[in-house]
């Protein structure tokens, strides 16, 4: 092989390896466009069908502490919002042994009501509570569709 033939052979090899642009690029482009279209359609469908509203309507995060006092008659349990999101008192209820308590009395009642905006430091004093009672702080969404137990004693 002469130098000219070797040079010609190398040029053909370079052309074959580097100048052929009809490879995978169009296929990858089509796949990416289809993937973007599918993702965009899923996001739009989520909000059009109303699922986006349900995703954002989750229970708030709040912590409560409890202080039981059996030295008074009737016994009291002070429930204090210890941290987390502020809550509207209209969205909170207190259950004792599975029964919702109100300020109206009965076996249990509020000695002191929640403030209208229950934030860190806000408390309510429950009266008539016994040491072995089960107390639940329950949050309900404003439309009443969802509820969650935020804390238990």
UniProtKB/TrEMBL annotation:
<dbReference type="Pfam" id="PF07790">
    <property type="entry name" value="Pilin_N"/>
</dbReference>
<protein>
    <recommendedName>
        <fullName>Archaeal Type IV pilin N-terminal domain-containing protein</fullName>
    </recommendedName>
</protein>
<keyword id="KW-0812">Transmembrane</keyword>
<feature type="transmembrane region" description="Helical">
    <location>
        <begin position="27"/>
        <end position="51"/>
    </location>
</feature>
<keyword id="KW-1133">Transmembrane helix</keyword>
<feature type="domain" description="Archaeal Type IV pilin N-terminal">
    <location>
        <begin position="22"/>
        <end position="99"/>
    </location>
</feature>
<keyword id="KW-0472">Membrane</keyword>
<dbReference type="InterPro" id="IPR013373">
    <property type="entry name" value="Flagellin/pilin_N_arc"/>
</dbReference>
<dbReference type="InterPro" id="IPR012859">
    <property type="entry name" value="Pilin_N_archaeal"/>
</dbReference>
């Amino acid at each position: 092989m002469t130098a000219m033939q070797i040079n010609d052979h190398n040029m053909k090899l370079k052309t074959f390896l580097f100048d052929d642009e009809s490879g995978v690029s169009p296929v990858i482009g089509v796949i990416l466009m289809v993937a973007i279209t599918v993702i965009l359609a899923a996001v739009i469908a989520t909000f059009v069908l109303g699922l986006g509203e349900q995703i954002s309507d989750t229970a708030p995060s709040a912590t409560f502490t409890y202080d039981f006092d059996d030295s008074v008659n009737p016994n009291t349990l002070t429930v204090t919002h210890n941290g987390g999101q502020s809550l509207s008192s209209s969205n909170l209820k207190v259950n004792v042994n599975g029964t919702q308590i109100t300020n109206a009395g009965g076996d249990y009642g509020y000695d002191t009501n929640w403030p209208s905006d229950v934030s860190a430091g806000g408390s309510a004093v429950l009266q008539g509570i016994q040491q072995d009672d089960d107390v639940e702080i329950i949050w309900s969404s404003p439309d009443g569709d969802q509820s969650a137990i935020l804390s238990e004693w």
